[in-house]
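Appendix B, example 12.
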Amino acid sequence: AYAFSAIQHGTIALEIKSGYGLELDTELKMLRVINKLKKNLPIEVVPTFLGAHDFPPEYQNNRDDYVKLICERMIPAIADEGLASYCDCFVDKGYYTIEQARRIFDTAIHYGMKIKMHADELANVGAGKLAGEIGAISADHLLFVSDESLKAMADGGTIATLLPGTSYFIRMPYAPARKIIEKNIPIALASDFNPGSCFTENMQIISSFAVMQLGLSCEEALVASTLNGAAAIELADRIGSIEIGKEASFVVLNCKNYVDMFYHFGINHVESVWSKGEKIV
């Protein structure tokens, strides 16, 4: 139901992450469901393994053992079934350390996955620097990212995926979007739809937050929500802009001017949604 709601609000590509099982069988079950959605939904769905989302209660006092479980059992099993394109890890204060993340990411890369990262959401722990050093496709959140980390991300070609809905929902500072842009790092926007810290599937209001709270121009927010968002899941060669040779996947809005989407917020401006040349809403 939430996926269809997202589509009705104009989403034509979804990255869906696991990470709410924190043990082998449930993580596998979640990824299998995501792959079923990938086959059955009329839009693009990209599966990401986020077993390193938190630590289960039984591993709180021996966290390295859970990292070992992820590396020795979860990642090989997921790779064996081809269930995930990416591996993510919550690298932050109170969660995964840089050293633990490196071990997880090295294992994931060995098994053919690419890297995404929850980075520096709660504190500056140098997660953004790690993202740049290992060539992560994207680093998400970045509320407390340092200049050193931004330099590494710029050098490594890592996209900054900003999630202003989460800052709003949990009353945290907003990511330093203007500084990130000044460092020539492309910004993508995403909903971060989840039951704990951002319960919205409406990318239109996320884009409005980006303009009003992150300081993006309407044009920057539009690119961040479309072409750069597609790039953050490595689909920019097919979707994200209307160009010859790309799929005819686009949204028609019922408004006088595109800026209405950002300033007339809290409603659904979508008139129709098209995916691969077919009208789906």
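Residues 150 and 278 are 40 Å apart (CA to CA). The chain is about 40% helix and 15% strand.
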